[in-house]
Amino acid sequence: MSIDRREFLRTSAAAAAGLSLTTSTAEAADVLPVSGSQTSVAPLARPVVIASGNGLRGVAKAYEMIAKGSDPLDAIVAGVNIQELDPEDQSVGLGGLPNEEGVVQLDASCMHGPTRRAGAVASLEGIATPSLVAKAVMDYTDHILLVGPGAKKFALNMGFKEQDLLTNKSRQDWLRWKARLNANDNWLDHDDDISIKFSTGTINMNAVTASGDIASVTTTSGLAWKLPGRVGDSPIVGAGQYCDNTVGAAGSTGRGEANIKVCGAFLAVEFMRQGMAPEQALMKVMERVIAMTERRLLNDRGRPYFDLHFYALSKDGRYSSATAYQGGQFAVANEKGARLEDSAYLFKREERPARR
Ligand code: GLY
């Protein structure tokens, strides 16, 4: 365990403990109340864009667009489109790993702070950019979430083009996973290359503009080899991403089932509303995730077998990322350029149990 960080958190959490969850959006007003560990830290320069580690090119793109005056949601959707359209990123969009039947099913959601609107799609097939479809749900309908065939029909009606999302590489990975399921079936196993047993991917991106407007987006192909129709946290507003223009934004990547139960993105924003700095808020969310995890997913020391990663930024431009285990990184772009930074963590790398 990272003792120093835990001690630090205990102290700063205690400092924040007097604040209540009832602070209203109106009361939070324009300036985030500052308390706990970050009391003496001056607000950092805006704009800021943050994302999961696969979003390095995306945060650079989004930052550039925001610096030129783009709307923050337009900018971060353009940022995640880079990964959605990259066949080498097997966690999102084109080339995403398929479900157990070899079908790529995509999830995404977004929120636009200034207008307080949201949109989402789940189990969407045949459209490489679910983030744009989610934004179209937000922009053109009175609904928030469309799923499955309804989501696809909507996308086609809106002019999105259908394409085969299963690349040769993803098909090969799926066939090899399938072959290994049963040693007694008629599919031959391949020993050379089975690195992917199962994986979670996803890209989350959040931005605050120079004037303090905020947006968030998350897009994914979900859990590899999932049951058809499985939906993770990414398209669930409040779980996979959330933003409140008076406070900040947060999002996640990793095991959606663990996040959905704590509404992690919403919880992080609520913790920031109470006055916690982004890192402190995210570590509290990680602790809540572990507290809410069923026994079969924890080892005998209470360490989780899965990965989950959170990202958050506050209206005043502070940002952070946190994960269960040491070693995570996330992408940041601000006036200092685009780069990867280390994520905060609850447990040291060597405490990580082998995946079961
Ligand atoms: N966080 C992505 C998923 O669980 O689908």
Describe the structure.
By secondary structure, the chain is of the alpha+beta class. The strands form 2 sheets. The protein has an 8-stranded mixed β-sheet with strand order 4-3-2-6-5-1-11-12. A 5-stranded mixed β-sheet has the order 7-8-9-10-13. Strand 5 and strand 6 form a beta hairpin. It has a single domain, classed as 4-Layer Sandwich (Glutamine Phosphoribosylpyrophosphate, subunit 1, domain 1), CATH 3.60.20.30. Helix 3 packs antiparallel against helix 4 and helix 4 packs antiparallel against helix 5. The N terminus is likely disordered. The site of glycine has 12 residues, from strand 8.
What is the fourth-level CATH superfamily? (Glycosyl)asparaginase
The description of the largest β-sheet is: 8 strands, mixed
Overall shape: it is globular
CATH A-level architecture: 4-Layer Sandwich
Strand order of the largest sheet: 4-3-2-6-5-1-11-12
Give the ordered list of helices and strands: HHEHHEEHEHHEEEEHHHEEEEE
Associated small molecules: glycine
Mean pLDDT: 87
CATH fold node name: Glutamine Phosphoribosylpyrophosphate, subunit 1, domain 1
Structural class call reads alpha+beta
Number of strands: 13
Number of helices: 10
Instruction: Report the sheet-strand fraction.
Output: 15-25%
Report the end-to-end length measured between terminal Cα atoms. Answer: 21 Å
Radius of gyration from the CA trace?
Answer: 20 Å
The unreliable regions are: 1-42
CATH class: Alpha Beta
